[in-house]
């Protein structure tokens, strides 16, 4: 039994982590820490990681569901206290700090898991297997959602390190780096940044594979009505499309049965396995692609964002 604490009891903790932990008999949720100290049944809730470690019950592991800007300090405290650490995506606000966390986890002999929930979407394993046997011609990501609907009141998303539209788009990049048979690299980007915030609200990213296959990503945080989380791959033997963030798969327009979408149960299954095997899983490739888009991207100042 892994005694676990949840840090950051906000939207994703309530939507996904609490139900996933409740459904996994290998974990026992013994405490939480969150700035506002929201109540959750009779679960003891502390103010932050230091309060939890100093005054909470004994723990083996923590899952960090805070905004990314405080991930490093929170993870360092937990790792130095000898706890296994599950990082929500993105695993940090810089690539370097994730390497730092990996080094500390190695020194401490504990597990660090950079979770990428969209890789556990139902259609992703079959998409990867199908693409592995074909020659890719081009691939297009379209990730368009309504920030007001999915991220109400989340001021952190607009601050430095919050990533703006890349907060959801990094999920597409996590699928991309999982399903592609070869490595991918950013070659250019255009980012639209509202005049009153630090992070982009829309953008276009050009990516290439090692062998020169073009990949594009079109991102928008202001799409109302139907929401779009699609990845389409054109090959020498048909067109593959992942929709609904990877939950649905079609090939040449025909729906492929992929089973139930169980992203967070899948993540906790992987975390339990890593702990049991005494290993870490640290993958910064989606974050590196975002970092490169920020490094190379042309910025256009656009109308202020008002929630
Ligand atoms: P959120 O609703 O703003 O929740 C974050 C929570 O963390 C808040 O309760 C906040 O408390 C707390 N917090 C902030 N700093 C803290 C600290 N130093 N110590 C303890 N608690 C702290 O954000 P979210 O949507 O859940 O997103 C959190 C992370 O999950 C992000 O990295 C996001 O990319 C990822 N994620 C989100 C979704 C989604 O659909 N929302 C999906 C997948 C992954 P206060 O508000 O009281 O400060």
TrEMBL record:
The keyword Oxidoreductase applies. Its EC number is 1.1.1.48. Residues 2-113 form the Gfo/Idh/MocA-like oxidoreductase N-terminal domain. It holds the Pfam family GFO_IDH_MocA. Keywords: Oxidoreductase. InterPro entries: Gfo/Idh/MocA-like_OxRdtase_N, Gfo/Idh/MocA_oxidrdct_glycsds, NAD(P)-bd_dom_sf. The keyword Oxidoreductase applies. GO terms for molecular function: galactose 1-dehydrogenase activity; nucleotide binding. This is D-galactose 1-dehydrogenase. It comes from Caulobacter vibrioides (strain NA1000 / CB15N) (Caulobacter crescentus). The lineage of its organism: Bacteria, Pseudomonadati, Pseudomonadota, Alphaproteobacteria, Caulobacterales.
